[in-house]
Fold:
Amino acid sequence: MRRPPFQESYVKRVLAIAGSATLLVAAVAAIPFASPRAAKKSQVMVHCPNGNNAAFVTPPKITIAVGDSIEWRMTGQVVADSLSISLKNPDQAWPFAGPVPEGTTSASTGNAVTKGSYGYNVHLVCRVPGGGTHPVTIDPDIIIE
Structure:
């Protein structure tokens, strides 16, 4: 028994649409996902007191992503003999891979591994004009998203 032409044409269209949908699903599955974001190193510039200006860091609060790192660098007219970093809350774990940084004119972290907000201290031993040194502590924040 022969089917009427409209039914055969209808079946062909349904099969064509189903085939196109399968091809579309296969094409979407073949699209590569975005590659992971490359880690970046952010810088915090550290300034010893100078004249009537107090010690400070720029930026005073830094926001980074998990996987990123931070480098603290001395800048300005007055330099420090040492620079070290510590968390304000001794109950918090250091959120970076590797040890807490200490250095002479710069200090770096490993990559951030834990999200959260972290108050930290920058400890400096700044040179005083005319000789000698003066200990200074600055207390900015790190936010890891």
In short: The radius of gyration is 29 Å. Residues 1-31 form one domain. The chain has two domains: 1-31, 41-144. The mean pLDDT is 82.
